Amino acid sequence: MTLQIHIDDSAAPYEQVRAQISEQARAGVLPVGYRLPTVRGLAESLGLAANTVAKAYRALESDGVIETRGRNGTFVAAAGSAAERELATAAQAYVERARRLGSDEDTALAAVRDALRAAYGG
What we know:
This protein is mainly alpha-helical. It contains five helices and three strands. The chain has a three-stranded antiparallel beta sheet.
């Protein structure tokens, strides 16, 4: 696993760790079942505080990207099933909210595209 933290980046270091591990897991660079370094070990190798890496791991676990198996360690979780369910739930909530606001489908979809461009830089 290769991570690069850019201190001058606008994204917080924990977010950089979270995003890079998430992307590597999604791309298959980190296969399902891959054992991640300990929080302390990764923090030392990246020159970060342990709390920074712990925050990234908590966010990744919440997103369903990784799972902690107690003393056995932290592993890449099965390909996004929990994350996909959460994404579908969030999308459904958005659609319901857009309808309550009186938005038509084209306007609601345009808002999503704008948000995606802002978030992913596209």
